[in-house]
Specification:
By secondary structure, the chain is of the alpha+beta class. It has a single domain (about 5-105), classed as Ribosomal Protein S5, domain 2, CATH 3.30.230.10. About 40% of the residues lie in helices and about 20% in strands. It has helices spanning about 5-15, 50-70, 90-105; strands at about 20, 25-30, 40-45, 75-80. Strand 1 and strand 2 (about 25-30) form a beta hairpin. Helix 2 packs across helix 3. The relative contact order is 0.25.
Length: about 110
Amino acid sequence: MDTIKSKAEFGRVFSAGTRAGSRLVRIAALPTGDLDTGKVAFVAAKRLGNAVWRNRAKRVLREAARTAGLPRRGHAIILFATSHTHDAHPEQVAKSLVRIVGEACGRDDA
């Protein structure tokens, strides 16, 4: 799974990307123009809890992303944990992800 690594790329997706969200996860998605690859990043803010809590939330997000088929070709996507992500099952988060990625990226190239 390709991840967003540079601060510049992260900032570009965060500021110019299309946002969508649900109770379990929020996303920012930006078309990259490169139709061969897609990138994804996982974020759990410090305000949500301690390091153990944030790491668990990111593990849930990573598993949900794999189940949902991310990264999506031609898009850079940032997944943000919510206060409900930690306690959710990855399949629940994956169902939510499929819906909101469709909203943010369009369903044509799913």
